[in-house]
Amino acid sequence: MSGLTVQFVGAGDAFGSGGRFQTCLSLRAPDTHVLLDCGATSLVALRRLGLEPATIDAVLLTHLHGDHFGGLPFLVLDAQFGRRERPLLVAGPPGTAARVTQAMEVLFPGSSRTARRFELRFVELPPAQPTAVGSVEVAAYPVVHASGAPAYALRVTCADKVVAYSGDTEWTDALIEVARDADLFVCEAYFYDKVVKYHLAYATLHAYRERLACRRLVLTHPSADLLTRRSDLDAELADDGLTLTL
Hints:
The chain is α/β, with parallel strands linked by helices. Helices cover about 20% and strands about 25% of the residues. The strands form two sheets. A seven-stranded mixed beta sheet has the order 6-5-4-3-2-1-14. Strands 7-8-9-10-11-12-13 form a seven-stranded mixed beta sheet.
């Protein structure tokens, strides 16, 4: 494999609209495998696509809602029972380590304190400051989405390519900077034209489209409402399993 392969492990919302898996993006380069978000269904989705969880080097989180980070307790336990030995990095907003630990204890009491063969290492991403996470560079931009901790859009440099990702947010001009000159911008489009707090409607995104100077735009995280209007979209909408080579 050469270059960067981006695969939509899950391209759905929190509620499985359209039978989709929850949010998870796989970025694979010759020397690294990174996930962007890891929703609660992600371990099942990874296995369905034949992506081996043991190859994942790092998980980068946009925010701390279950459909974006809730798969981590399962991923960590799978690594533990699979006798993983190399480190697993988890990078996200402030509070990530505490929230993941709490989730592990709720789902599998005692699991966060069990001895492991591998190091589970957490990195808190500072806003708008490029940060090395393993072999990738991540810049996190604050966006507008309430999750009990800061919410970010991410700009990830991997294999000389830039993948930008909105996470969940209502419109904010921060998305212009996130998307600028990106090889791929993956952006939420939740409803078609209904404007709700903390989420993006396709109509809103369409109105700002010319300000997003990205090379390719792919929509994700659709609600049932948006899926019923798919034929009206003037943009690419991801399905689970969609694979792109950059």
